[in-house]
Description:
Blueprint: H1 14-28, H2 44-50, E1 58-63, E2 69-71, E3 74-76, H3 81-89, E4 121-126, H4 132-158, H5 162-171, H6 177-189, E5 194-196
Parallel strand pairs: 1-4, 4-5
Antiparallel strand pairs: 1-2, 2-3
Helix pairs in contact: 3-4, 4-6, 5-6
Amino acid sequence: MKRHEVPEINTGSMADIAFLLLIFFLVTTTLEIDSGISLKIPPKNDIVNKTIVKNKNILEILINKKNELFVENEIIEISNLKQIAIDFIDNGGGKDINNTICDWCKGYRLPTSSDHPSKAVIYLKSDRATSYETYISVLDQLNSAYMNLRNKLAIQIYNQDYKSMIDDFKSSNKADIDLQNKINLIRQKYPLLISDAESIE
């Protein structure tokens, strides 16, 4: 009696197929990337080299390796930074480059503080050993100061706060040109001028 042989499955190409599938999934899979901080910090050289900035128009902030915060060489609490930044930006003690006063500024108009929001530069310097959390907290306070000033001005001019204007603009898929012009005007009146210096040793 003749024995029937069981046919074998050719597995020689299985490794090739598995390899091709692996490459396919690697190429087509999208990974979520942490976008980080959305703040665009202007390079230090752009401010120092292109424009002569008066000392009173610079608010110098230093974070040392112990995560202590110094403003104009005086140690402060991070919670106080927002109001210090607001007072500095909104001082309105002089004129802009077009010789125009800041008639929307609500500051004390001190001759020793910034002339105009368009000239008020915040100069942030940190130590290499500064913790990430402290650095982000400082940036958050500075962003909050700008948001506070922009909100107040937007309400004064348009009866709508700046944050909700941004939300409405995003929900319109950035198609509302009139709203975009309003947002740009608020940004021009309170431009975000933060210079992130190189880390100190």
